[in-house]
Write a structure and sequence with these properties.
Elements: H1 2-19, E1 23-28, E2 34-37, H2 39-45, H3 49-52, H4 57-60, H5 66-77, E3 83-91, E4 97-107, E5 114-121, H6 123-144, E6 148-156, E7 162-166, H7 170-174, H8 178-183, H9 186-191, H10 197-208, E8 213-222, E9 227-240, E10 243-252, H11 254-313, H12 319-346, H13 355-370, E11 373-377, H14 387-408, E12 412-419, E13 423-430, H15 445-456, E14 460-465, E15 471-478
Parallel strand pairs: 11-12
Antiparallel strand pairs: 1-2, 1-5, 3-4, 4-5, 6-7, 6-10, 8-9, 9-10, 12-13, 13-15, 14-15
Helix pairs in contact: 11-12, 11-15, 13-14, 14-15
Length: about 500
């Protein structure tokens, strides 16, 4: 009965060893020769079970692990340990290695005592550990080369947010060590310039309230360096099982802001210079128009009077002289018309009566010269524009009409003036072939000049396709507060 039970248990144990994925090796305590091995061990070591029984564990252990193995065997033989564990590398038949976590037991329950080796292949776990170590190392290397500070904020369920991670660049960017900033995040808030704190707090409240992102650009006061630094914070939110995490980066924007300020300053200087040049040009035009009207007109009038006197006093029989004098009188009339045209081009006299009469005169002249039909609509009451603004608006419409005549192939134009509460909007629309802006293409000098004139007035110019057909040029300029509003 006992023998049958032992046979049953032996068969059961053998079946378990056959199906187990754990390596099991049984070897003699004196000779260390392997006496039994399960299929998992033979498979991992790339041996046939019969071939392994001619070897000892020292034949498949890595050389550097053999001394520790022998030491543990001695402890097991002496009875100082009944079982022990070790982490070693096994060598396959082809020379490749794999790591194992093994346990060894001393068993005297047989006719002859044996050691039992039970091991698990941990290659996958080791690979995962190394990959994780490389991943962490790579992450630290990437963070170290970021031109700013990386950080991470965590808020667990029903708790306040905490600063979980800060990269070492915080010392360079903020003058605060990473460990000190993690311990007291309020130190960053104290660096923010007073004028920029409300905006920071508002954006922070939105982020804590559930917004997926947090973006802020502001100034901090570096007391140690006695300087103001611009920083940009970019944060994105993600949900985890432990709560909400905000991954963020803080960048030094000082050089960019300085370059932006220099660019804006340069732009303002160029705009001021352009405005000054236009003002000088208008003054020159006004001067030349007056010279042409007064001096040239006065001289032509004198010549006209002289020729009239001469024609009245020439003898009737001097037909050739009368004919020549009449010709000169006609030339004087043509010169009068030319002088008037030149003076009007330089500085239309209609501008002295307001922007609406000036633009009406300009449209009438445009219609005569191009045979393009026109229509104008404007308020009945005077529009309070300063002289410089009126001249600029006149020149912008003049340039727009020139573009229509040159490029639009239009048959009609419409000019509309709308008085708004604090500005005047002038819109010129044609029914020509249209204007299709090309991305990346440089605007023409005519449009650039119109845009600069509008910007110099504190206004805005837009050029876009009309709703139905053609092109629409819209100008908005502020009204002068110094000129009384006669509409009231």
């Amino acid at each position: 009965m006992a023998s049958s039970r032992a046979a049953y248990e032996g068969a059961l144990l053998k079946a378990v060893l056959q199906e187990s994925a754990t390596e099991v090796v049984v070897f003699d305590t004196d000779t260390l020769q392997i006496v039994q091995v399960n299929p998992a061990a033979a498979k991992n070591l790339h041996y046939r079970p019969g071939a392994l029984q001619k070897l000892t564990p020292l034949d498949f252990l890595a050389p550097e692990d053999r001394q520790a193995f022998n030491t543990l065997l001695t402890l097991l033989r002496n009875g100082k340990k009944r079982r022990t564990a070790l982490s070693v590398h096994c060598c396959r038949r082809d020379g490749t290695r794999y790591p194992v976590e093994a346990r060894m037991l001393y068993s005297a329950d047989h006719e002859k005592p044996v050691f039992i080796w039970i091991a698990n292949d941990v290659s996958q776990r080791e690979t995962t550990r190394q990959a994780l170590a490389h991943s962490v190392s790579d992450m630290h290397a990437i963070v170290a080369h970021i031109p700013g500070m990386a950080f991470q904020i965590q808020r667990k369920h029903d708790t306040l947010p905490t600063l979980r991670y800060v990269s070492e660049q915080s010392a360079q960017l903020l003058g605060i060590k990473a460990s000190a900033l993690r311990g007291n995040p309020e130190r960053f808030f104290k660096l923010i310039v007073d004028d920029d704190r409300p905006d920071y707090l508002a954006r922070l409240a939105d982020a804590v309230g559930g917004h997926m992102s947090f973006n802020w650009v502001g100034r901090i006061w570096m007391k140690a360096w006695k300087d103001v630094k611009w920083v940009a914070i970019r944060v994105s939110q993600r949900k985890t099982a432990d709560g909400t995490i905000w991954d963020g980066i803080m960048l030094n924007m000082t050089h960019s802001k300085q370059a932006e300020a220099e660019l804006l300053h340069s732009r303002a200087q160029l705009s001021a210079l352009a405005t000054h040049v236009e003002a000088v040009k208008e003054q020159e035009r006004l001067y030349l128009a007056r010279e042409v009207h007064d001096d040239l007109g006065g001289n032509l009038t004198t010549i006209k009077i002289g020729l009239s006197w001469l024609m009245r006093h020439l003898p009737p029989e001097q037909s050739l002289l009368l004919e020549r004098t009449a010709y000169l009188d006609n030339v004087v009339d043509q010169t009068f018309e030319a002088a008037h045209r030149i003076a009007s081009n330089l500085r239309p006299a209609a501008l002295d009566f307001g922007i609406v009469p000036a633009l009406t005169w300009q449209l009438q002249r445009f219609g005569r010269n191009t045979d393009i039909a026109y229509k104008i609509s404007a308020p009945d009451e005077p529009i309070p524009l300063e002289p410089d603004a009126a001249i600029a608006a006149f020149r912008i419409v003049q340039e727009a009409l020139t573009n229509v005549a040159k490029h639009a192939r239009a048959t009609r134009v419409r000019l509309k003036l709308v008085r708004e509460p604090d500005s005047l909007r002038i819109t010129l629309t044609d029914n020509g072939r249209g204007f299709q802006p090309v991305r990346g293409a440089r605007p023409s000098f005519g449009i650039l000049g119109m845009t600069e004139r509008a910007a110099a007035l504190g206004g805005e110019l837009t050029v876009q396709p009309a709703k139905r057909q053609g092109t629409q040029v819209s100008l908005r300029i502020p009204l002068s507060a110094a000129v009384p509003d006669t509409a009231k």
